[in-house]
Write a structure and sequence with these properties.
Helices cover 49% and strands 16% of the residues. With 811 residues, the chain is an alpha/beta fold. The strands form five sheets. A seven-stranded mixed beta sheet has the order 1-11-12-13-9-14-15, with helices on both faces. Helix 14 (402-416) links the parallel strand 11 and strand 12. It is flat, with a radius of gyration of 43 Å. The two termini are 64 Å apart. The model is unreliable at 394-399, 637-644 and 706-721 (pLDDT under 50).
Amino acid sequence: MIYPKSFEEKTGFDRIRSMLKEYCINQLGRKQIDRMRFRTNFELILKLLNQTEDFRQIIISGEPFPQSNYYDPTELFKKIKPENTYIEPEELKELWLSLKTIDKIINYLRKTCKDGHPLYPNLFNLTEGINIDKEIFKRIENIIDEFGEIRDAASKKLKNIRNEKESSFKKAQQKIDLILKDVKKKGLISDDLELTIRNGRQVIPVPAIHKKLIRGFIHDSSATGQTVFIEPEEVFEINNNIRELELAEWQEIIDILTKLTDFLRPHFETLKKGYRLMGIVDSIRAKALLAVETGSMRPKLVPYPVLNWVKAIHPLLYISYKPQNKHVEPLNIYLDKNKRILIISGPNAGGKSVCLKTCGLVQYMLQCGMLVPMLDYSEAGIFKKIFIDIGDEQSLETDLSTYSSHLYNMKFFLKHANNKTLFLIDEFGSGTEPLIGGAIAESVLVKLNESNSLGIITTHYSNLKAMGGKIPGIISGSMLFDSKNMKPVYRLKTGVPGSSFAFEIAKSIGFPDDILNKAAELAGSEQINLDHQIQDLEFKKSELEEKEKQLRSAESFLNEMIDKYENLSGELQTKKNEIINEARREAKQILSTTNKMIERTIKEIRESNAEKEKTKHVRAQLEDYSKQFTQKLQEESPKKAIKKKPEYEKASNGISIKQGDYVRMKGQSTIGEVIEVSGNQGVILFGDIKIKAGLNKLEKMKVKKDKHVHTDTSGKVKYSFDINKKASEFSTDIDLRGKKVDEALTLLRRYIDDAILLGIGKIRILHGTGEGILREAINNYLMTLEEVENVKPEHPDRGGAGISKVYISKK
């Protein structure tokens, strides 16, 4: 139950509905949006939310979804339902194209993961039992071509008629062309005159004075009567025959279309299911697009009444502020069966009514199956009834004053409220004498509390503020006000009532001091000062809590970094020890082998009594061993040594490129060697990869002097990466959602380096929306890179603020 009837207008949901209809592609989707209503069934609401969340993921992924040739065939089906009716060619074209779109939608939603499960399970279920018979496509495509024109081969009879018509037309054209030349030759008409059309036939424009000289049928004359338009007698009969063939052609087309319509008629129910799917998907897409626009999420849905919202915002306010980059203060609110009613007080224009309308609109959106603008770990419950008393309902027709209308609403609330009701009342008790109005409001509030309803009210009345915390189930809340800077903070703080700050606001707008002083005397300065001190303390407490939260976050981040540093340091020390131990083992082995070789050599020399030939032979063996050992060191050292990349600079302009030169692709930094030149083409070796490119796309490079470049025995520079493999495996999208800030930045640094190396000009970073912490950290890092030219949010249709497009300079 929703109360009053003007609920949607009062909360702004009528504007939400209008926005959804604008997002729809065609009338089928708009009809579904018109049918959207407040639901109370938990399973149904959850299903609707899951469907929209699935489509939100499609949008965020950037994967194209079929969204052309949406068509509403409702009137067409009504028209061709009776026997002996037929579909017009243009209607057939619309039907054919839209059926192809439905088939694409079905195939898209039935896509599966590698494990065979549906990729979008909640949308997959919509396609159950819907299959467009392939014979329908075959029959239609046999009749019309890709432009929607009736094919000559649609029937044998139609083909014969068109062939005969074409032959007759050519014959008529030849005759009338000869006649035209003849009358021009005789000087009956000027040489610059040409054939024209009258009544669908070709005619010759002839001066009226010569009309008797040309035999034929006069179809028309000019406005002055000086020119007549004559169809020559020689082509008159041929044209009559063409007209008869045209009529026969159209009759045959009607027969063809009638037979096709008779074939389609038994399939109407299946086709209607397909078009219903198209409308439902269109409406879900619209809801998902609005969710992306407003940063809406799917909260944790529970089947009982509860509000446990974290950082909820008013979607219309967010959309209004977005172009101006203005901040919308989020709302944190908690109501359950123990803390049922929240009494919000605070300054005028401090956000009380916005808070109230946010709760009404967001809860209504949720129970209409829409994603809502709050964090996804928020908990949202289901209410059977939502009642609001917002704004002025006075009416001359029903003789209702402002206060009478409020009383009428309260009467309805008291009669119908129960433990599954959410009520929202703005400026509770206002509109009449404050003492009496406050007393009545207090009595009503006690009764509503006894009904176990959940509710939020706003008020300036002290007696209502005092109820918070004193009566079980009722809590106080205030909209914070910065009394130092004299401006509202628009932040809700539960636990304490708020001040109206009437004196401060009056003073800030230049209200006369003498009047304010007199008012302070009447109100009592002690009460005013106490009220202000409580508010100031609450505001400062809120600021301290926020700073404490930031410090805890920073401390957690710092501890995490310290742990990672210590782990990395330990790993490096371990690796260092392993390398040193390995080197010692190798050194011992080498020393042992060398000593043995030397001892054996000395022993052999001694045993041979320093015989010349034997000594020479033994020395040769020792030298050979020395060479083998040296060669082994040379082979192994490049594998263990850290290779230093050579430094290059651009060679002078005008120098031709030849085999053996070092070059780079224009706009790139990777250096390669030219191994072949043929005409204006060259083959360049980048590491182990050969690439063919035009010489005009290359820049000749030379090694900077006094720089040591590690080369192999052939002089070729060695690189430790496979550029072709990197290029083939590189994706222009990187998904950092769910990553911690430091982890995400580490991955992003490597990704950006690869993008720059490969000369990629544009990439997309998927970071999600959430609280915006990861997005801000990523954007701050990107702004430090010289290579990054620009960073923009993705289009709302393809992910919006949840995706950043990064443009990288190729210079």
